[in-house]
Amino acid sequence: MTVDARELQRVLDGRWADVRADVRAQLGTLALNPDPGLSTEEYRELTTANLRLLAESRRPHLGFDPAYGGGGDVGGVVTAFAALGYGDLSLLVKAGVQWGLFGGAVQVLGTSRHHDKHLRAIMDGELLGCFAMTETGHGSDVQHLRTTATYDPAAQEFEIHTPDAGARKDYIGNAARDGRMAVVFAQLITGGTSHGVHALLVPIRAEDGTPMPGVTIGDCGRKAGLNGVDNGRLSFDHVRVPRENLLNHFADVAEDGTYSSPIESSSRRFFTMLGTLVRGRISVAGGAGTATQKALALAIRYGATRRQFADPSTGEEVVVLDYLVHQRKLLPALATTYALHFAQGDLVSDMHDLQSFGEEQASGTDAEELQRDLETRAAGIKAVATWHATATIQTCREACGGAGYLAENLLPQLKADTDVFTTFEGDNTVLLQLVAKTLLSDYARRIGKLDLAGKARFAADLVAGSVAERTGLRAVLRRGDVRDRSYQRWLLVEREEHLLAAAARRMRRALSPGADQFAVFNGAQDHLLVAARAHVDRIVFDAFAAAVDRVDSPAVRGLLDQVRGLHALSVIEADRAFFVEHGYLTPGRAKAATQAVNALCGTLRPHARTLVTAFGIPEAWIDCPLLDGERNPEAPATDPTPSHEEPTDLAAVG
Amino acid sequence: MTVDARELQRVLDGRWADVRADVRAQLGTLALNPDPGLSTEEYRELTTANLRLLAESRRPHLGFDPAYGGGGDVGGVVTAFAALGYGDLSLLVKAGVQWGLFGGAVQVLGTSRHHDKHLRAIMDGELLGCFAMTETGHGSDVQHLRTTATYDPAAQEFEIHTPDAGARKDYIGNAARDGRMAVVFAQLITGGTSHGVHALLVPIRAEDGTPMPGVTIGDCGRKAGLNGVDNGRLSFDHVRVPRENLLNHFADVAEDGTYSSPIESSSRRFFTMLGTLVRGRISVAGGAGTATQKALALAIRYGATRRQFADPSTGEEVVVLDYLVHQRKLLPALATTYALHFAQGDLVSDMHDLQSFGEEQASGTDAEELQRDLETRAAGIKAVATWHATATIQTCREACGGAGYLAENLLPQLKADTDVFTTFEGDNTVLLQLVAKTLLSDYARRIGKLDLAGKARFAADLVAGSVAERTGLRAVLRRGDVRDRSYQRWLLVEREEHLLAAAARRMRRALSPGADQFAVFNGAQDHLLVAARAHVDRIVFDAFAAAVDRVDSPAVRGLLDQVRGLHALSVIEADRAFFVEHGYLTPGRAKAATQAVNALCGTLRPHARTLVTAFGIPEAWIDCPLLDGERNPEAPATDPTPSHEEPTDLAAVG
């Protein structure tokens, strides 16, 4: 059954197919693979120039409030942003800093006084800015940033100050060269009281580029990748800004210094402010996805033409993608890339519906619930997608051997540029911990709502589960076929529930009188992360399954379901120790998972080229010498001489 | 029990402690962390200049025949070479190309006519050369290279020719800029008969640097890393060299074109020639080791000073290396780095004893057996050590967050430079396959030697094993403690034997009449690689255990044995699915392995700094802003305000 790559592409393109088509048409002809020999300064210059071209395309405007000339299409802008990952990741990140982080913060944390003054210049790329959150001493722990913004009612100004070296703003994009203004996150102090972290607009450079008085700007210099982005450091020595520079959507300070906020709890206020910035994380996951797709397209297309070693029977050299181990390196990774693509699509779609401008939105508890779910999913998928990108791009590089190490073949840049994705916009480990915490809270709430009889039943279930585990009963009861979608889902759901229940039991010990809370938490930390990972795996599984079900064409649906199966089985195979240890799989069925992965690799091998073509990567952005073999397919090399390898004397066995 | 890092360093330094001390004294004061902003040309120039400084140090001479002014210390030179991995990997690789590959080939494949003429100039760095083996179309499959060397008896010359684009020599170090001569591997043809791959000396550039007539030289350009090395491409258009340029230690062509060789089988001859080059693989494994050590030293020293998030009880910020998950990222990797260090030490030592000049050496079958074992071990350890380097350096980068992404903190260069180690000097997948093939041959021979009764017993054992597996008898019979060294070894040995026996059974099917040999092999390919990996794991385990036993000081031995245990348990934990599936571990004991890894992480945490100090990395080569926290330890940050995180309502559970 042959599947047309264009049909499959329509499925992958999904809700924002029109935006994707526009981006391909608009940018696909640009040369966005910069010369890898550019100096840092040259690359920064080029990236800034490309940023201005992007602004001229008015694509970034898509994400802003229509009242200010924006397009009001949050999902569209995030989709367009991710597509830059097929081209130049420095440009993607620079655009993300300018419009996603800096512009996004002004949009959602600010009010009309900021919007009126700055939004249009930000959209047009006339006012370039920074998102100055991270400090040298505090990256993940944003709540404990040390920069201060102290209100002076006499002058009606805030004084921004860096109290020590650790409070220096660090790794800030747009800071080293281009930024004129920064959204600075600082502890807001008024009347001697600290109200926690808030954001303020602080001019950092004059028009001519010289630093503003009291502002010290450093340069982070060369990085592993993303060298088109000018990351820098900012320190403030009692720098004064007007009271109005506080981005006051969630809290304000009156002229006399009185603090007010519609959100009473300082903790809830902090998390609400941060929550509005979820778009950054979702965008990073999207960029990781497109970069991974590009790497796989390169490695699979190369693997489908490269030949090495002769088939002993025919003497003909074998195409490397016909080797099982080569398939195992690339095809499960490809299947997972598909799975994450659909999970990401759902995430973007839900964010769009939640954040759209001017439309009727869910409000109150419902909206909070939805926002909370979105943030948790964004954290989880960002972590899983970026780790997947790092591992897959690495594998792709290795699958292309020496050719994959040459800059001309694009893989080195992809690897170097995406490397930081696992630790920026939230360190992955910290993000998964966040997911675990939310899951635990939800779990506790679920149990809390049970009446006494329900709790007793629940406790009995736990005991029964544990007995089933000991006796291998679970596996006996569930004689499913690992290739069945429903059985796969059962496994993933059971794992998630099992890990969560066990984690909850462990964490309860932290509440015993005299317990060392940190020790209890720390002892269970690896367990918590595994539970979070299991949760994300299940969500991704469901997203892929739903995507398959939406497909009309039986041929496309059939192929896609095989890809889905390969993804699911490779997840199960990777953690089969868990399933066997806890009685969810018999050893025999665990081995069957491995065999099924191998079999599906063989089944999907003939479709590998189609599966990567369907990503719709503009050919101009992927063209490189690695793909010469496609254009100039040599006749299969046949070697008339027999293989010189000494045959292994297998006849002697047994 | 406190252990002095210097005592531990003596253990790690091992047999070539004096060479290590010399290298530290001689090079430790040089600044060998080049500015990451260097252009390709600047970096190449610097590397060539450093290469000349190395030659002046006369350290490279160590590896050559004393009859020509060499030091005759093969083990010493490989040890010294690896130590460059603490500094600049471009220099390490450039030195490896010049003295290991080019000089090594002239030494071992050539005879006195080549030695007299070139060895001194090679040692002194006056004659820079290339090792031109790999072609664009054939990397791993060296036997099927297509460059030809056709003998012309009339002129008494060889004609070197590149018949097609795929036969171009590619990725050749020293080719793009510096090399004057190349050892070219080509199919030797005389009297119309091909005798397989042989090596010849071919001048590629005149003194003034212009290419020799008929030689086309290309430049591989920018690479992911190692940009101080000038990799290039060589094509030959009927280039003529004198008959004497054949490196004729293993085969010669007489004036009249008669071919002769002391080794009759062309296959054995080929593998004998290649076998002499085992030093390259061992050196790469060594370089991977030192680079890994440096990355771990950076990440662990940073992790031991960096603080993030407050302990809820004390309000004091927690040192990140105190988090279990941070320990899990770094400490098992550190333990495996120790394990590989000792396995590498054994390898270097055995190679030294086998290859030493002028000493009485084992000969005949024994020598062949030893050489074969050395090659197999070198292949296996090179694969495992370089994959370990890639994964560990990646983890270290991530463990340092944004700081780890900055070039000034050295980790990006380490990652980029070592990345190609997994695919050069033998692609790791191909190398493990080689190991598997040798293991299968040995296995077949072992079984072949059994008499009829022995074979019957063997078959019965296999059946019994299979029954034990089904009934879980193995696990019941072996009620060991996973923390016991003898139990750990039993597990690793059983796994190796089990996988090998099963692989042999599968491969036997290839011999059935009408079997598709490629299909049978390919279907078992993943199994073969796992078997090879299990073999290497067992060898590495044994090397570490033997190293622990050699230590006199009880304190050092005790600490080292805990590191050994962490390594062994992390190997067992990573493959616990296998052990449970095949009845070697009960599910309960598999979980115990995980618990034991966690416990050992805690036990070793206080020694982490000592364990990396003992590598003896010159401080000048590791000094970077990442380590500022050590020099300027801030008082632990205490946060007077209570944590703002909403507590998880755990009380509601159950």
Can you tag this structure with a few keywords?
homodimer; 654 residues; alpha+beta; Butyryl-CoA Dehydrogenase, subunit A, domain 2; Butyryl-CoA Dehydrogenase, subunit A, domain 3; six-stranded mixed sheet; three-stranded antiparallel sheet; 23 helices; 13 strands; disordered C terminus; Acyl-CoA_oxidase_C (chains A, B); FAD (chains A, B)
Plain-language structure description:
Two copies of one chain form a homodimer. By secondary structure, chain A is of the alpha+beta class. Among the domains of chain A are: 129-269, Butyryl-CoA Dehydrogenase, subunit A, domain 2 (Beta Barrel), CATH 2.40.110.10; 445-613, Up-down Bundle (Butyryl-CoA Dehydrogenase, subunit A, domain 3). Helices cover 54% and strands 10% of the residues of chain A. Chain A has 23 helices and 13 strands. The first copy, chain A, has helices at 5-13, 17-27, 40-56, 74-83, 89-109, 112-123, 266-275, 278-303, 324-355, 364-399, 411-418, 428-448, 452-471, 473-477, 485-508, 517-523, 525-550, 554-574, 576-581, 587-604, 608-613, 619-622, 628-631; strands at residues 129-132, 148-152, 157-161, 169-172, 181-190, 193-203, 215-219, 232-236, 239-242, 252-253, 259-260, 307-310, 317-319. In chain A, strands 1, 2, 3, 5, 6 and 9 form a six-stranded mixed sheet that branches. The longest helix of chain A has 36 residues, at 364-399. Mean pLDDT of chain A is 91; it is low at 635-654. At the A-B interface, α7, β12, α9, α10 and α11 of A face α7, β12, α9, α10 and α11 of B.
